[in-house]
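I'd like us to work through together how a protein chain folds, taking it slowly. We need material for that, and I hope you will provide a protein of your own picking. Go ahead whenever you are ready, and we will take it from there:
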Amino acid sequence: MGKIASERYGGRGSNNEVAHLVKEDPEIHKQVEQAFVERLIYGDFANHSGNFVVAPEAGHVMVRNIDLEHGFPSHKTPEWNRVAGPGENQRLRADLSGQPLSKETRDKIDRFVKLYSKEEGRADLAKAGLKPDEIDGLLSRARWLATEGRFPEAKTGP
């Protein structure tokens, strides 16, 4: 996102410029919000910017998650731990900590929970290779986000 911020604001794409971009551009904010929420639902703690791909798609900026090797633990509550790794996500995580989720994101989470809480949905997740405790954790984290309607508080320590 540094490149987009640099092009838009004429700077070097600093963390502050990226934070400003995310705050001021509703479409980019939505993409960043949804990418972080997906990662929280998956339970993958490696949320540094190297695990997000920012690319144009159909005339829009899209933010996608990659490298989910630490995903799908069994813990029930989304945890937003300190970012280990490169990039601007430390600043973005701090800015979004405890902030409300958009109605669009909450609605997507609600649909996900309704679909995959049913026996057929759980069976689909199992077919994708998830174990019962991983499915329980995934759905519990999604329910927490839908019910609370906000990002969890970001942890600042290790």
